[in-house]
C-alpha cells in the first residue's frame, strides 16, 4: 500500500483524532511522558488484564479447591476457554488451540510429537536468524533420539543477515527433510514470511511444518484455514499483553488429533476419565490432549482480559493501524533522521512486515541507552538494531512523532556519547 504522510506534529495529531481505536489507549497503564515502544518484547498491563487476575485471586480466596469447578469460567477447563478466545486471531477452530506452559516447552512438545525420522528422511529444517530457544529445543530433541544435530540440521542461511528468501527455504526442502520449524516474523528485522507459500511447498513434499508465531500473533492476523500448517507455537506476553510469563499458545491441526503427544502428562487425558487416575493415558482428541501438568492459572488470567479486548477491537483493524504506524515511523526516519546514519532493516512492503521497525545504526547500543533516559522504552538486539514497536492498542501517531523528535535531539546534541558501549543482562 502507498502511504502519504506529512512530517509535522499537527498531522500526527490529526491522524490520532481520526483513529477509531484510540479509546483503547485509556485502558492501559501508561506513564506520563513515557513512550512505550517495547510491546514486541513485553506488552503493557491493561485494566482489563488486571481485573481478570484480581477476579481469579478472589476466586481462590473464597472457593479454595472449588476454584477448579465452581466459578462461571471453570479453571479446570480454563485452557479450553482461552484457546477459544485465541483461535480467531489465527482463524483456527477452537478445538485446535490451547494455552499451555511456555513457548520452549511447546516446541519440545511439538517436535517430540511430529518428528519421526527414518534412515532417509531425518533432517529438521531451521534458519540461522530464528530466536535461539527454537534451535536449542530442536537440538535437544535430536539428542534425545540419539542423533547428532550437526548431521540432522538443514540450515537455511540468510543472504544479508537480516532477512530470509522464501526461494532459499523452498530449495532447502530436500528429500531428507522430515520437519520444518520457522518463525512467522523474524525477531530482529521484523520480516514477515510468506507462510502460505512455504507451507504449501512443504506439504507438496510430505514434510511436517510448524511455525513460531511469537513475534506475529496479535500484530498480524493469520489464516490457518488457508495456511494449513501442522502445528504452531507462540508466547502471549508480547503483542497479546498477557503479562510477564503469560501462558503460551499451542496449535495442533485437527488432522493430527489422534497422534500421541510427544510430552504427555495427566492433564492431556480425557476430562471425563482424568480423575480415574489410570496409569494408561486416555488422551483427549483435540489440542487439549497436548496439555501435560496442571495449568498456571495466575499466568493465564491476564490473558483473558487482553483477548477479550482483541475481540472487541478486531485484529484486522489493529493490523491496519499497525501497518500505518510502522509506515509512518519509517517515513519520519527517512525524512527527519536521514543525516544521522540511520537505516531501516525491516522490509518495506506491508505483506512482508510484522509489527515493529528495526532501526539500525553503528552506535545503536549507546543510542538505545540514551533513549531510555529520554523517556522512551525501546530494546536493543545485536549487533546494531534498536527495535521499535508502535503497538496499535496503546501507541498513537503523535507518540511516533515525539519518538523521532527525541532521537533527533540525542543525535544533534550527541547525547549518546555519554554512554558506554556495553549492554546489561536485559536488553
Write structural notes for this entry.
- The protein is an alpha/beta fold and 427 residues long.
- It folds into two domains: 9-30 and 314-418, Aspartate Aminotransferase, domain 1 (Alpha-Beta Complex), CATH 3.90.1150; 50-312, Aspartate Aminotransferase, domain 2.
- 35% of the residues lie in helices and 11% in strands.
- The chain has 13 helices and 13 strands.
- The strands form three sheets. It has a seven-stranded mixed β-sheet with strand order 2-8-7-6-5-3-4, with helices on both faces.
- Helix 3 (78-86) packs parallel to helix 10 (297-313) and helix 11 (315-336) runs parallel beside helix 13.
- The radius of gyration is 22 Å and the shape is globular.
- 46% of the residues are buried.
- The mean pLDDT is 97.
Structural class comes to: alpha/beta
Low-confidence stretches: none
Shape: globular
Largest sheet: 7 strands, mixed
Percent in helix: 25-40%
CATH architecture of the largest domain, please? Answer: 3-Layer(aba) Sandwich
* CATH superfamily annotation of the largest domain: Type I PLP-dependent aspartate aminotransferase-like (Major domain)
Query: How do the helices and strands follow one another from N- to C-terminus?
Result: HEHHEHEHHEHEHEHEEHHEEHEEEH
Radius of gyration: 22 Å
What name is given to the CATH topology of the largest domain? Aspartate Aminotransferase, domain 2
Note the gap between the termini.
33 Å
Amino acid at each position: 500500500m502507498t502511504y502519504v504522510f506529512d512530517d509535522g506534529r499537527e498531522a500526527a495529531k490529526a491522524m490520532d483524532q481520526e483513529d477509531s481505536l484510540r479509546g483503547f489507549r485509556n485502558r492501559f497503564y501508561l506513564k506520563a511522558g513515557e513512550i512505550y515502544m517495547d510491546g514486541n518484547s513485553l506488552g503493557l498491563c491493561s485494566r482489563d488484564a488486571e481485573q481478570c487476575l484480581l477476579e481469579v485471586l478472589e476466586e481462590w480466596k473464597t472457593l479454595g479447591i472449588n476454584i477448579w469447578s465452581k466459578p462461571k469460567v471453570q479453571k479446570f477447563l480454563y485452557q479450553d476457554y482461552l484457546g477459544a478466545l485465541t483461535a480467531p486471531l489465527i482463524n483456527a477452530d477452537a478445538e485446535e488451540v490451547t494455552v499451555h506452559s511456555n513457548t520452549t516447552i511447546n516446541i519440545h512438545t511439538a517436535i517430540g510429537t511430529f518428528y519421526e525420522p527414518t534412515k532417509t528422511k531425518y533432517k529438521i529444517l531451521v534458519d540461522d536468524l530464528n530466536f535461539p530457544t527454537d534451535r536449542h529445543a530442536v537440538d535437544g530433541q535430536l539428542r534425545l533420539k540419539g542423533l547428532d544435530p550437526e548431521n540432522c540440521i538443514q540450515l537455511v542461511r540468510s543472504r544479508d543477515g537480516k532477512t530470509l528468501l522464501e526461494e532459499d527455504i523452498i530449495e532447502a526442502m530436500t528429500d531428507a527433510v522430515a520437519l520444518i520449524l520457522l518463525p512467522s516474523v523474524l525477531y530482529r528485522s521484523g520480516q514477515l514470511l510468506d507462510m502460505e507459500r512455504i507451507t504449501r511447498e512443504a506439504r507438496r513434499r510430505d514434510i511436517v511444518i510448524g511455525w513460531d508465531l511469537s513475534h506475529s500473533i496479535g500484530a498480524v492476523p493469520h489464516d490457518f484455514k488457508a495456511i494449513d500448517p501442522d502445528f504452531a507455537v507462540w508466547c502471549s506476553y508480547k503483542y497479546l499483553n498477557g503479562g510477564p510469563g503469560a501462558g503460551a499458545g499451542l496449535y495442533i491441526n485437527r488432522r493430527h488429533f489422534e497422534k500421541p503427544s510427544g510430552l504427555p502428562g495427566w492433564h492431556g487425558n480425557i476430562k471425563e476419565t482424568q480423575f480415574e487416575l489410570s496409569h494408561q493415558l486416555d488422551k483427549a482428541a483435540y489440542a487439549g490432549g497436548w496439555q501435560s501438568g496442571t495449568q498456571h492459572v495466575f499466568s493465564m488470567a491476564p490473558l483473558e482480559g487482553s483477548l477479550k479486548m482483541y475481540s472487541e477491537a478486531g485484529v484486522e483493524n489493529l493490523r491496519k493501524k499497525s501497518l500505518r504506524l510502522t509506515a509512518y515511523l519509517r517515513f519520519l526516519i527517512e525524512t527527519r533522521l536521514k543525516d544521522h546514519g540511520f537505516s531501516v532493516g525491516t522490509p518495506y512492503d506491508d505483506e512482508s512486515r510484522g509489527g515493529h521497525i528495526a532501526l539500525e545504526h553503528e552506535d545503536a547500543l549507546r543510542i538505545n541507552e540514551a533513549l531510555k533516559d529520554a523517556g522512551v522504552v525501546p530494546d536493543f538486539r545485536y549487533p546494531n538494531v534498536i527495535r521499535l514497536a508502535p503497538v496499535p492498542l496503546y501507541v498513537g501517531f503523535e507518540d511516533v512523532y515525539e519518538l523521532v523528535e527525541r532521537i533527533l535531539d540525542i543525535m544533534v546534541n550527541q547525547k549518546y556519547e555519554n554512554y558506554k558501549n556495553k549492554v546489561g543482562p536485559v536488553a
